[in-house]
Specification:
By secondary structure, this protein is of the alpha/beta class. The chain folds into two domains: 1-111 and 258-356, 3-Layer(aba) Sandwich (Isopropylmalate Dehydrogenase); 121-255, Isopropylmalate Dehydrogenase. It has helices at residues 16-34, 47-53, 59-65, 90-101, 124-127, 163-178, 194-207, 220-229, 241-255, 292-305, 309-324, 343-354, and strands spanning 4-12, 37-42, 70-75, 105-111, 131-137, 149-150, 155-156, 183-188, 214-219, 236-239, 264-266, 271-273, 327-328, 339-340. Strands 2-1-3-12-11-4-5-10-8-9 form a ten-stranded mixed beta sheet, with helices on both faces. The protein has a two-stranded antiparallel ribbon with strand order 6-7. A two-stranded parallel sheet has the order 13-14. A hairpin with a 4-residue loop joins strand 6 and strand 7. Helix 1 (16-34) packs parallel to helix 12 (343-354) and helix 10 runs antiparallel to helix 11. The structure holds 3-isopropylmalic acid and magnesium ion. 3-isopropylmalic acid is lined by residues 77, 91, 94-95, 245, 276, 278.
Length: 356
């Protein structure tokens, strides 16, 4: 009997539904051709959950995703829900979901497709061959630290990391580095923050177990500059929640568009796979969004959560082929473009190539 997996689908808001539809198209094509079955179950999160249930993270979602083999997620948020109190906003739903799922390790590869070296705002010689893995701690740090409060004349958040939290994300980064070029740059702000000094000490302790891996440290402000100045110096970047959020957006520009980059959030149980970009409400519903980051996230899901590596390779190759043949969504500009296509046309092309 062929293998069958249950995939949780969270479309979300804005361009979320359209990019997820394309990823499902590709997953269906590749699973049929590779002989396994994917069963999908949809869950609500974010603005669409608020509209239907009054809360951004319904209980059914929390319980339901835990019964899946993996979860594929689009994007959440939009102006419609911006004025809500923080705990009722779509973003709180996503953060709550990450916490509930225990997905503390967020892997954000920043790679440059050869076909798109001219699509970046940086010079081709600076970005050609860039291949970085940002390992972002996802369920701790200032995003979740207590106390936090918004008062009339002041407001505060707290950046907290426990020893265990730093250890486990460092181990993930070192394990990944062992399979890559064996270099880690841990990014912090240890010249100012106690929490960063602590982070650094623990990362140093973990490094002892990985003598083959070269560990360096960098302050986050310098790292932001170095990513643009000489990105090829990086292999694995290990960093905390907020620094990883910022640096991964910056790193996405090396690739030419934030619409290209996927992510995998793994940890204690079921993994969550999502593009690194947001819900882009300004272009939602026009069919012009780029589905490649989500399709690429689906590929990471096959590889990391289901172990269907051959299928993941098929999707990655199909994306490259589509790009090398000159198919582009609007965000990539018209460099070397044969055809500017819609979100759905791009999905059709990648699905077709993935199934061969
Ligand atoms: C991301 C996003 C989220 C984050 C938002 C939507 C809460 O920017 O996944 O990078 O800050 O983690
Ligand atoms: Mg972000």
């Amino acid at each position: 009997m062929s293998k069958s997996y249950k995939i949780g689908i969270i479309k979300g808001d804005g361009i979320g539904p359209e990019i997820i539809d394309e990823a499902i198209k590709v997953l269906d094509a590749v699973s049929v051709s590779q002989g396994f079955t994917l069963k999908y179950e949809e869950f609500l999160l974010g603005g669409s959950a608020i509209d239907e249930t009054g809360v951004p993270l319904p209980d059914e979602t929390i319980q339901g995703v835990k019964k899946c083999d993996a979860v594929l997620f689009g994007a959440i948020g939009g102006p419609k829900w911006d004025s809500l109190e923080r705990h009722l906003r779509p973003e709180s739903g996503l953060l709550g979901l990450r916490k509930e799922m225990g997905t503390f390790a967020n892997l954000r590869p920043a790679m440059v497709y050869d076909e798109l070296v001219n699509a970046s705002s940086l010079k081709a010689e600076v970005i050609e061959g860039v291949d970085i893995m940002v390992v972002r701690e996802l369920t701790g740090g200032i995003y979740f630290g207590q106390p936090r409060e918004l008062q009339e004349d002041m407001a505060f958040n707290t950046m907290v990391y426990t020893r265990e939290e730093v250890k486990r994300i460092a181990v993930v980064a070192f394990d990944i580095a062992m399979k890559r070029k064996k270099r880690i740059c841990s990014v912090d702000k240890a010249n100012v923050l106690e929490v960063s000094q602590f982070w650094r000490e623990i990362v140093e302790e973990i490094a002892v177990d990985y003598p083959e891996v070269e560990l360096t440290h960098m302050y986050v402000d310098n790292a932001a500059m170095q990513l643009i100045r000489e990105p090829k110096q990086f292999d694995v970047i290990l960093t905390g929640n907020i620094f990883g959020d910022i640096l991964s957006d910056a790193a996405s520009m090396l690739s030419g568009s934030i619409g290209l980059l996927p992510s995998a959030s793994t940890g204690k149980g079921v993994g969550l796979f999502e593009p690194i970009h947001g819900s882009a409400p300004d272009i939602a519903g026009q069919g012009i969004s780029n589905p490649l980051a989500t399709i690429s996230s689906a590929s990471m899901m096959l590889r990391y959560a289901l172990g269907e590596n051959a299928s993941a390779d098929k999707i990655d190759d199909a994306i490259k082929k589509a790009l090398s043949e000159g198919y582009r969504t609007g965000d990539l500009g018209d460099y070397d473009a044969k055809e500017i296509c819609t979100c759905s046309e791009m999905g059709d092309i990648v699905a077709d190539y993935s199934s061969k």
